[in-house]
User: Fold these one by one.
Assistant:
Number 1:
Amino acid sequence: MLTAVGAILRKDLLLELRTRESVPAMAIFAVTTLVVFHFALDRPTLAGDLAAGVLWVSFLFAAMLGLNRLFVAEEEQGGFDGFMLAPIDRTSLYVAKALALLAFLAIVQAIAVPAFAILLLDPSLWPVLPELVGVLLLGDAGICVVGALVSAIGIRTRARDLIVPLLALPLLIPVVIGAVEATAPLLAEGGAEPLPGRWLLTLGLYDAVFAAIAYAVFDDLLED
Amino acid sequence: MDEPAIELAGLGRRFGERTALRDVTLTVPAGATLVVLGPNGAGKSTLLRVLAGLLRPHAGTARVLGHPLPQEGWAVRGRIGLLAHEPMLYRDLTPRENLRFHGRLHGVGRERVEEVLEAVGMTARADDPVATLSRGMVQRVAAARAVLHDPELLLLDEPLANLDPAASELLEPLVGRASGRTRVVTSHDPAGGLAGADLALGLRGGRPAICAPAAEVAAADATALYA
């Protein structure tokens, strides 16, 4: 399975490097959303819950762009048939797609988080950067395990651009709530507060449950 | 005696209300070539996709390489090579990158990739994106992909489409009768198709109109399928 995951992931990253169809659009969308919030909220700076909410809503919307394109090359260029004919565990396709999305989100966040700090954030990010990276990874994992599954469901429908966000957004609400609650103490106005273990655990459990569901059903999603 | 490569009994397949295949019954011995003739929409490509395990039969039974489909589809994955209308190549990757990718999925090394690239005469263009290749060149790379893992059964949907005579000759040892593999080949050329086959299946509206040894089928009967 690891060989197949590696092959698919490597192919997806190579395709993105060559076509630049997803990551630049996601990054521009995330930064643009932050700029819109900057003007819409009419505040010079943000902190705490509001800052965390703005940050994760921006990431969520940017992720939707990536989700819509996650399986497009497979659907339009016969990739699905190639996988179905190969002697591999089909779940490897799901794992590779989730990891590819995780890589895309990490790149987007490497651009959007500094932009957020410059445009909107009141407290400094530097002292809490390691903790923030940890929370980002946990939240991203939730977006990726849910998103890759929804993207696979939506790709074979005629209205995939509509279906994917309509299915993904409600399913990702718990991830956003957990991620915002876990991020808010790091961005508190008077200085960072301890990470809330309860919310980190909730996020981790949600990620694990959806990963298990995806593992159980993904093979059937590819079947005729 | 070798087990037949393909055994179909009353095979049927629908798409919604439309019947694409109905009551197809035939046996293809290992190493034999079956030519599938019929006009557009007759069910030829659907038959290939059912044999490849990409579509489930809705009626009857299908055994491929000794295994019932779809129940034991896992057992034939990696033993079938499919050359369909869609080349199954990523347009923004090069032929070499595409073949290496498929090679990794099938556990095939880089030496074999270079071997098939050379066999289809694509070494010189192996590092150009597929999107920049002509349709004939794409078909050659697709043929290389189909035989990359040395499959026992080849399913070929009009394999010589878009190819000039020289390229057709180049592919003969790989996907032609000379390859020695069991083959199912769809064709719109009744005379040529029958000449290169052991068995013939003529489809009209998804139903078998001809099912006989190729030598016993008159070219006029095969041509009448298109009338």
Note: Helices of chain B lie at 44-51, 95-106, 110-119, 135-147, 165-175, 190-195, 219-224.
Number 2:
Amino acid sequence: MSPLEEPTTGPAPPMSEYRRREQSITLSPLPEQLEHGADGSEETTQELLTLNFGPHHPATHGVLRLLVTLQGEVVRDIKPIVGYVHTGIEKTAEDKAYWKVIPVVERMDYLAYYFNAMAFCGAVETLVEVEVPKRAQYLRVIHLELNRIASHLIWLGTSALDLGAVSIFLYCLREREKILDLFEMSSGQRMHTRYFQVGGVIEDIPTGFAHKLREFLKVMPERADQYGAILSANEILLQRLRSICPLDADALLSLGVTGPLLRAAGNPWDLRKAAPYSSYDDFDFKIPVGTVGDNYDRYAVRLAEIYESVKILEQALDGLPEGPHITEDRKVALPPRHELATSMEALIHHFKLVTEGFRVPPGEVYFPIEGPRGELGCFVRSDGSSKPARVHMRDPSFVNLQAFSHMAKGAYIADMIATLAMLDPILGGIDR
Amino acid sequence: MPDATGLELIGQELGDSVLDTIFFRDRATLVIDPPSIRSVLARLREKGYSFMSSLHGVDYYPEEPRLGVIYELLDMRRVDRITVKLRVPTSAPEVQSVTPDASQDAGWPTANHQEREVYDMFGVVFRDHPDLRRILMPEDYEGHPQRRDFPLGGEPVIFTCNDTGTPRSSE
């Protein structure tokens, strides 16, 4: 035996912890045979390259890691690896009273905080059977739709940035700043506002909010027109988006994809229309749909949704009914501050609520709403105590990510980046 | 949602595989025998519930059987939801995976990541799942953190300063 040959017997060299973890990640087998190389012809043989992409990469929109198998420049397989920002929010929620869960669930999908709070509050309200006053429902719609616009603006800015358009990012953030100012006005916080409460909203909107919102609503459609003018007729953008990585509605449905991605493929499924919650049936708005479900349709649908959200906002502001902003049920909502000085009853309720919280009848409820990225459902199980026994968010980003490898297989790696941008995954929502 | 009568009808139609029907807060739930999960979902798909909107795990500690898997199905044409629930004990936490296509019924590809999450968080093993690995926790993590008897907190942060084997700069 020559010294260069490896010995066939003897213990295997110890594998380092890093290598062991690396090898424990299994790659799925290639879906198709390579076009050339099976016959052994030397010049056409192409080697497969496995490329690690992320987790820290500006184009992954968060801490997403992709193991990409490439044949030349063509993507043959993608394995998304997630969990880098897993913070155990669902576990944390089990240790908190119901009203203290709201701030932690808001931090899941950090661009759609009002939606997370809405899904959770909706589930708890169904369990407790508490009636939400009409004014609170309208105030919720106002904040949800503002949040939808803000989320789409971040998506539009960062996606355009990925495609090489830099200035649009600054324009989008300029408008988002206006929305955050409005959030700050109504709740004191710009993000993760804890504005939605079980039974309504924490405070009525302050004086001047309506005026400022109207100013914003006048400006926003013009600005969206400008974004459209910059992007929709841009030759580079069109070439990067049109008929790139399409996926038809049936495939999307079997993968559980909802939201703008499904609507881009021509299926007008929108929970705001199909199963209205929080008085969405009072408003007149349209659902933008695409035709083929390529990247251009995904872009166009989201841009059109901004206009529809503005329409809803105008109607909600015009028709904002008078009345209480939170339920009068003192068992779930804090009594007004001034009552504490005069009413013993109010003091007892206040004390019970801030120490123990309210108790929720045992049961399980799944409450789905239409988030900016698709169906956002909150599952809450109560065991009768004042803390939830299980909180689970069906986050649209988590489910939609499964469609990514189906969309981008066979595309160029540059188109994979564009598709990931159009998929709009929020890693805070995926990892929770 | 099917009303209470509609739920009973579906329950009777599915026969012995349905252990219980729950109608709570206008939401319909079928509690089924764990081995029959694929056939029940296939029958419900024929009835129009062709979209699986969510799949999640629940720990019913201290009740037995402890682990629950919940499938939320949706009929998009009638805008109707039904929940299918099954429970398995921690001693044998095995459920047939609904992700891959089988010989008699088509699979639900959307369940792929969600079954992995339930496996990761609760330790429910999905038989015949194409790629059953942890998804949110690290590959080498021990335990299933969403179980109710799993402690909250108390986990050391993996930094070299917490590692007694690593010499300090002062040493």
Note: The CA atoms of residues 148 and 372 of chain A lie 6 Å apart.
